[in-house]
Amino acid sequence: MYLFVNFLCSLALLRSAFAATADQWRGRSIYQIITDRYALPAGADLTACDPGQQTFCGGTWNTIKDNLDYIQNAGFTAIWISPVSQNYEGPRTPYGDAYHGYWIADATKLNDRFGTASDLKALSDEVHRRGMYLMVDVVVNNVMALSTTPDLSTFMFKDQSQYHPYCPIQWGNTTSEQNCWLGDTNVTLPDVNTQDPTVVSAYNSWISTLVSTFNIDGLRIDGVHVNTNFWPTFCAAAGVFCIGEVFDGDPSQAAEYQGPQALDSILNYPMYNALVDAFSIPGPQNMSALTDMISQLKKEFKDPGLLGNFLEDQDVPRWANISVDPQSLWNAMIFNFMSDGIPIVYYGQEQGMHGNSDPWNREPLWPSGYANTTTYELIQKLNQLRNFLVNGTSNWLTSSIDVLTESKEGIAFMKGDVITILTNIGSPPQNVSIAVYTPFESSLSTVDILTCKQYAVGSNGTVEVEYSKGGVPVILIPNTALFGSGICGQSAEVEAPNTAQGAVVSAAFGELRRPSSTVSALVVAVMMSVCGGFLSIAF
Ligand SMILES: *[C@@H]1O[C@H](CO)[C@@H](O)[C@H](O)[C@H]1NC(C)=O
Ligand SMILES: *[C@@H]1O[C@H](CO)[C@@H](O)[C@H](O)[C@H]1NC(C)=O
Ligand SMILES: *[C@@H]1O[C@H](CO)[C@@H](O)[C@H](O)[C@H]1NC(C)=O
Ligand SMILES: *[C@@H]1O[C@H](CO)[C@@H](O)[C@H](O)[C@H]1NC(C)=O
Ligand SMILES: *[C@@H]1O[C@H](CO)[C@@H](O)[C@H](O)[C@H]1NC(C)=O
Ligand SMILES: *[C@@H]1O[C@H](CO)[C@@H](O)[C@H](O)[C@H]1NC(C)=O
Ligand SMILES: *[C@@H]1O[C@H](CO)[C@@H](O)[C@H](O)[C@H]1NC(C)=O
Ligand SMILES: *[C@@H]1O[C@H](CO)[C@@H](O)[C@H](O)[C@H]1NC(C)=O
């Protein structure tokens, strides 16, 4: 036992010496930041930022670095920041200024609006000091210009042959999506010719240098609808996890971008659409859309556990703009944390921001006062639970979700030993209930981690949730599986094993549905604390 523990501890240390892989990202949760909008320097005017003006509000890499407590206290284990490359600088465009960072001029230079190279390095160092990962947004597909015949001298690629000739994109036509230009004729987004070998090699050496210079752990890639065979060498050159933006709700189309022929992962737009259909109020409140999407994702994607789950980003309306009931948000958000995939929360969602799409969904965060809202506290609980399940159990992260029950009003699903029961009825109480047939033994004690209320499993393994107080979400876990989590009165530290605890452990074996997985979960929980500094304890 002792040798086994040591081996795993040193493995964990070894891994941390390398840039982060897809598997290391699988257990993370990400807070997405628009660099310009997250925080201001001390003393700045807190009232001056109007998203409708589409101009710079003053956030920088330094102000992110100085305000990481808010993100870490919410339990996030990674941040995703706006593109760091130099942007268009010039007269205001019909769509304002390049405050969002996506209007790339020369990718090889840094955006001095956001700080210096040493500021970015300091942010990266501070993120790592806190045990978190840094994900940087990159734009490869295009640069930005004001005409269809731009002066190329300010760009990274200066030769006409390194761009596709101008044509507006026809969506649905793959060749057109890959080779034509995003944007319109006011702000053109000249399409870089990613089939050109000089472009491929320059991009690969650029990304390799960027990642190693700033110790970046992962890339979020904007608009990945280029020739897919560009991506494997690009991401290999980066040497880190790559998650791409495929703005497509069709799972079979979107799935072509995940796998060894393309990228590690993509943002989960198909599931985003299904969550809107299932939970938003008003809306179709179509739970079948959700269960249907769960099975489609399992069928179409090589690895649904790596998909980036979100309810908001810089391109779609805030959830609260399309759904006014807070329970709809909380139920949908819990799906993203408790199902397969990497949860991503877009800054400001925790503060109830409710702007429409671009530019209204890029509000400054500071007027919120970074308050501990109900949603912020829910996210803390979800991250605490998920972080525990990731490291404290052996099977949660790698098992895939199974739907146990679906009805018009709700869904119950299971991942590892956790059962999540969600409803779309919203806040007003209703005389409905959801009966869930679980694989648990009758009379097993489970706890709802959101309320710390006990639920005993009924005869024949059934659990029933009723909504006489409104449509609240429920996350049930066998009490014994929370051992060592610090959740709902459980101790956060696993004490040195002694006979009393041994008795608790063996009692757990008798009650749980899958004794073998429970055994390994408990062993892992003990092991983690050993790695954390109890090495003198002999087993
Ligand atoms: C260009 O911008 C102007 C002013 O905002 C707008 O009226 C016009 O529709 C835009 N043109 C295109 C092609 O989108
Ligand atoms: C698809 O787009 C390409 C590139 O613009 C174009 O040459 C081709 O004609 C389009 N195909 C169809 C069916 O429209
Ligand atoms: C609900 O979603 C299912 C699955 O996507 C779909 O077949 C059905 O037509 C939808 N129902 C409504 C009322 O939109
Ligand atoms: C949606 O966003 C628009 C623009 O930001 C705003 O005028 C409207 O009030 C918002 N709706 C809700 C329900 O918040
Ligand atoms: C939120 O709660 C934390 C922990 O209790 C506290 O340190 C912080 O000051 C609170 N934030 C605000 C804005 O009240
Ligand atoms: C899990 O443990 C590893 C190694 O100690 C640590 O780096 C990581 O932050 C932990 N992950 C989570 C989600 O807590
Ligand atoms: C709830 O529904 C059940 C079954 O339809 C019915 O027997 C009961 O009276 C209802 N309760 C209330 C408070 O409406
Ligand atoms: C237990 O529940 C399952 C699923 O609902 C059902 O198929 C089975 O008949 C039940 N068994 C008993 C003994 O009630």
TrEMBL record:
- One example GO MF annotation: calcium ion binding
Which Pfam families does this UniProt record tie to the protein? A_amylase_dom_C, Alpha-amylase
Catalytic residue positions:
D222, E245
Q: Give the EC number.
A: 3.2.1.1
Check the record and name the SMART domains matching this protein: Aamy (SM00642)
**Sequence ranges assigned to domain Glycosyl hydrolase family 13 catalytic in this UniProt record:** 32-386
Broad class of enzyme this protein falls into: hydrolase
Listed under GO biological process in this entry are: carbohydrate catabolic process
> Which cofactors must be present for this protein to function?
Ca(2+)
Residues crossing the lipid bilayer are: 519-538
* Lineage top rank: taxon: Eukaryota
**Signal peptide residue numbers:** 1-19
Q: Which residues bind substrate?
A: Q54, W103, R220, G249, D315, R362
Q: Where is this site: Transition state stabilizer?
A: D315
Key words of the record? Calcium, Carbohydrate metabolism, Disulfide bond, Glycoprotein, Glycosidase, Hydrolase, Membrane, Metal-binding, Signal, Transmembrane, Transmembrane helix
The reaction(s) annotated as catalysed by this protein in its Swiss-Prot or TrEMBL entry are: Endohydrolysis of (1->4)-alpha-D-glucosidic linkages in polysaccharides containing three or more (1->4)-alpha-linked D-glucose units
Q: Note the SS bond partners.
A: C49-C57, C167-C180, C452-C488
Task: Note the InterPro entries from the entry.
Answer: A-amylase-like, A_amylase_C_dom, GH, GH13_cat_dom, Glyco_hydro_b
Family to which this protein belongs: Belongs to the glycosyl hydrolase 13 family.
Q: What is this protein called?
A: alpha-amylase
Q: Which organism is it from?
A: Grifola frondosa (Maitake)
Q: What is the lineage of its organism?
A: Eukaryota, Fungi, Dikarya, Basidiomycota, Agaricomycotina
Q: Which gene encodes it?
A: LKA1
